[in-house]
Amino acid sequence: MGRFVVRRLLGMILVLFAISVLVFLIFNVIPNSDPAQRMAGKVATPALVRSITEEWGFDDPLPQQYLTTMEKIFSGDLISYSDQRDVDEEIVKGLPATFSLCIGAAVIWMFFGIVFGYLSAVRAGGLTDRLLTILAMIGISMPVFTLASIFLIYLTYKTQLFPSGGYVGLTEDPFDWAYHLVLPWTTLAILYVGFYSRVLRSNMLDAMSGDYVRTARAKGLSERRVMVRHVLRNSLIPVVTLFGLDFGATVGGGAILTEAIFSLNGVGDYAFESTTNLDLPPIMAITLFGAFFVVLFNTLVDIAYAYLDPRVRLGSSAQ
Amino acid sequence: MTSAPLLHVKGLRVGFATEGGELQAVDGVSFDLAPGEVLAIVGESGSGKSVTAQTIIGLTRSPNARIEGSVRLRDTELMNASEAELRRFRGEQIAMVFQDPMTSLNPVYRVGDQIVEAIRAHREKMSNAEARKLAVEMLGSVGIPEPARRVDDYPHEFSGGMRQRAMIAMALALAPDVLIADEPTTALDVTIQAQILDLLGGLNRERNLATILITHDLGVVAEVADRVLVMYAGRVVEEGTLDQIFYDPQHPYTWGLLGSLTRLDRPRPKRLPQIRGAPPSLLDLPTGCSFRPRCPHAFDRCTELPDLAARLEEASEHRDRCWLTPEQKREERGVEGRIGLEEPA
Predict the structure, then answer these.
(1) Which residue of A129, A209, A219 to mutate against B (max B Cβ within 10 Å)?
(2) What is the pLDDT of residues B61-71, one digit of tens each?
């Protein structure tokens, strides 16, 4: 277990390094991405551009520019090119909104994904199953921006039931916090509810024909116990894997659209803004931030896996 | 049989609605099982032996299944019992051991916990600790070494033979009256098979346990069975005591099964005899005797289904479904000095 974590940490550093180099290179080959030109504004004189280039070191060799940027990210000195704000500070400012959105949505999608998947599987072929299947298909095929627009039109502008956006701190007013997040949570969670319920349903149907389920019935267990303790328990293993990946990806950038549409001012919002401005420092920092969460949750999933499935042993003691 | 039957199965019929039409997996199976008796049900895959066994404890109940007939345990009719009533019998009075011990235990729970779960499903008042103690005791009694330690192992930490022992321990933890063992040795190595059979035989004697042993392996039958039921395409084609079936078999299908056994005490045949053809599809059974298309001794009358009846004056419990006269049978079944089924020259 200790060795496993160390190995994964080393792997994480490698992944983050590779991603940062990639993003840096991509940024440098994008046309019109010369930051000096952009910083100088629309009526830039060549002299101004030159002086900015020198001041910011944009004429240094690429590896050196890369090193300087990375060093600044980790020392907290990174300054945005477009508005000269401190990047790390901006990210930290966005964290509460992003985590509120992602954690809340994750709770919703896991809960409904499991409940709907379970009901679908237990009543396979019945009316409940068909209804849930249709709902899941709608959820899966509905893009975030469409869903968000529908919510905004019908639940905000026409009926004034929910606020159109904005983030209220949890500590400021917990009720208002949740009230502002209901629509973003729902928007973000629906896709996953549909997807997870389908995955769980098919896993459970597979498991139901398993020999150990027959054994459980032959022991005289109640149908409910057979379903929950044996069928559901075993079918959750792949769902937990998916969850780790999806949650990591959501925190690491998957919620950008939702954040932007509901103007939550989270990290995703910041990423959206920086990308539109071709602002390298925040893009680099946010990409690393996202990659960190993806890798982190991957590792956590692998650890959870060993607890969920005793046949899996971590590290070198694996059979 | 002098003792009253413990389990009484009469006219059991199980049909399943499938896409290709309704198929009759079990067609009129009847038998009695006395305490302490080992009844072997023998037949090829698809002969209906497993479906018969699973129907006894209601495991085949489903919207697609049509089940008729009677299964009585002592004085209780199980066929019209509700699912909840039936559940009290499962595991508690009729326990089952399945074919593949590799997949019959849930991989994510400890072996001991799975046994405890079976115990506590029927003994609500028993504490977890007591149930665990019983589980350890049972594991020890089926020959698991260091049961107090192994009780906390996961199934994948057990060998195949140990898993089957654990399954048997689980089945017997509540001291059931009837044990149904569905091909309990098929998935095991030959040496382990012998150990498991010894174990089953021993338990059967010690506990006066009535056992239904389902198998396609006549070698296994010869080891432990008192009585034998030979099934073919959903019907019983012959039934009798172990000796009757092995030394005076009346149905050509039984001859075929016996003839295809390898024996160490006889000269080795050039080619192992086999029953020609394949079992019929249950969706498209031949009229009359189902074995007719594969039987080298079939004649006109075989298009009419023979009853399962005692056809020998001296043995009223030995019954079969074949139109040949006992004299013809004794003559035809001799092939190269042994019982077999071969193309008449």
Answers:
(1) A219
(2) 888 899 999 99
